[in-house]
Amino acid sequence: MSVSDAESQLGQSLAINELKLLRSSIDNIDASLVYMLAERFKCTQKVGVLKATNDLPPADPAREKVQIERLRQLAIDANLDPDFAETFLNFIVKEVIRHHEAIAAEAGR
């Protein structure tokens, strides 16, 4: 059974339309991720100020361990690669610690 030129073009245009819809959703998700990360870092910067003004260490290895385990389980539940989730959290933690250390340095501690 052969596909006519019209059917082939229709199939391509349907695929292109679907591609555009999917890309639009991806763009929306990316925007949401950026805003969510911005909110997360706003909160963690407040934590950094709190830690710096109370002579608390910038890192909390026990909490980080619990968070990694929690995030890995969330990733498994969401059918996401837990190694990716852990790498992503480690990146965030590294940035948070860097911010906390900078805040502490500014506070002269």
TrEMBL record:
Keywords: Isomerase. Gene3D superfamilies: Chorismate mutase. The keyword Isomerase applies. InterPro entries: Chorismate_II_sf, Chorismate_mutase-related, CM_bact, CM_dom_sf, CM_II_prokaryot. Coiled coil: none annotated. It comes from the Bacteria. Transmembrane segments: none annotated. Residues 13-104 form the Chorismate mutase domain. It is an enzyme of class 5 (isomerase). GO terms for molecular function: chorismate mutase activity. Its EC number is 5.4.99.5. One of its GO terms (biological process) is salicylic acid biosynthetic process. The keyword Isomerase applies. This is chorismate mutase. The lineage of its organism: Bacteria, Pseudomonadati, Pseudomonadota, Alphaproteobacteria, Hyphomicrobiales.
